[in-house]
Write a structure and sequence with these properties.
Layout lengths: L7 H12 L8 H12 L5 H13 L4 E4 L2 E4 L6 H12 L6 H14 L2 H4 L19 H14 L1 E10 L5 E17 L2 E8 L4 E6 L3 E11 L30 E9 L3 H8 L3 E5 L4 E9 H11 L3 E5 L1 H19 L1
Antiparallel strand pairs: 1-2, 3-4, 3-7, 4-5, 5-6, 8-10, 8-11, 9-10
């Protein structure tokens, strides 16, 4: 579809944004060719030069050299865009599909020449991403409920041995704060059933509703929270950042440990049913991290193999017992 020439100055700016930088200046003929091929606009060299000069007068940082014209500065430098893209990639609370969409938008800000630097967008499915399709809707609803001081209700999910989410309980309460911790969004909420402050994963919430006729309980009225939340409690970093050998470990787990396994390892494990109370899981991870992980969950997890890992756990537990006996 042919566009009117009154759109010329806007299209020239878009072409400079999309295709030019210091290493890729565009000659007037390059701009003319792209105007015709992408927008169906025909113009002369003088019109290109005149409109670029007009854009410069309007404050756009456009450099004109003997090799052509280019956009000298953007809202984000390439290094800043890479930082933002890597942040999206590393965020567990942003699902794989949303990650691709966000990264595509960020890469577009750097123009066509930058997009080649963002090829690792295709690795998002390999990261430990949430599969929740309701995450962003949940965040919007929670934000609205907090703003209006209303209660919310939702189904809380847990991951089963089949790696699929299943309803664990129905929850209702007064929402106070969203916190990003360990790359996950958590809601700080007064749970109406248990009458205590709970920290619940937002990506595990489904069927959320704002209860418009029920006012939230003010946080200052909750016992122990007269002065608000202590944010220092949420400042710890990710644990178990070990850089040692990777080992494949076979575990015997109680059924309720499915949820914990998925939290820590995403889809990076295999499972098999064992009996009515247990299943086995096979995980490949840092040896040191697995020792600490198994100790953390105590009688709920047992290392079946390799044998040397079982022996190390036994030694650690015996040493711990001696320490407490003394």
């Amino acid at each position: 579809m042919l566009e009117p020439k009154k759109a010329l100055i806007i299209r020239i700016l878009q072409i400079l944004e999309d295709y030019s930088d210091e290493r890729h200046p565009l000659k007037q003929q390059d701009v003319i060719d792209k105007l015709e091929s992408e927008y169906g606009i025909e113009c002369e060299r003088k019109a290109v030069a005149r409109n670029i000069a007009c854009l410069q007068e309007l404050g756009y940082d456009i450099e004109v050299t003997g090799n052509g014209a280019y956009l000298a500065s953007r809202k984000f430098e390439n290094a800043e865009l890479r930082l933002l893209i890597d942040s999206v990639l590393g965020s567990r609370h942003v699902g794989a599909q949303y990650s691709k969409q966000l990264i595509a938008k960020l890469a577009a800000l750097g123009g066509k020449n930058f997009e080649g630097h963002a090829k690792h967008v295709y690795s998002v499915n390999e990261w430990g991403k949430t599969a929740s399709k309701e995450l962003f809707l949940n965040i919007e609803l929670i934000d609205e409920a907090i703003e209006k001081a209303k209660k919310i209700s939702f189904d809380y999910l847990k991951i089963g041995p089949d790696k699929e989410p299943h309803k664990s309980s129905s929850r209702k309460g007064s929402p106070y704060q969203l916190i990003l911790h360990n790359q996950r969004y958590y809601l700080v909420m007064l749970d109406e059933k248990y009458q205590n402050i709970s920290y619940l994963r937002v990506d595990k919430m489904s069927n959320m509703k704002i209860l418009k006729k029920e006012n939230a309980v003010p946080l200052r009225e909750v016992e122990g929270y007269k002065n608000g939340l202590d944010y220092s409690l949420f400042s710890s970093g990710l644990p178990y950042m070990f850089n040692d050998e990777q080992v494949t470990v076979r575990l015997k787990c109680k059924n309720f440990m499915s949820d914990e396994l998925h939290d820590w390892f995403g889809d990076g494990y295999t499972v098999s049913p064992l009996d009515k109370d247990h299943f086995t899981a096979t995980v490949t991870a840092s040896k040191q991290a697995m020792l600490f992980w198994v100790l953390q969950y105590n009688v709920n997890v047992e290392i079946l193999s390799p044998e040397f890992m079982r022996n190390e756990i036994q030694t650690l537990l015996q040493d711990t017992l001696k320490q407490y006996e003394n």
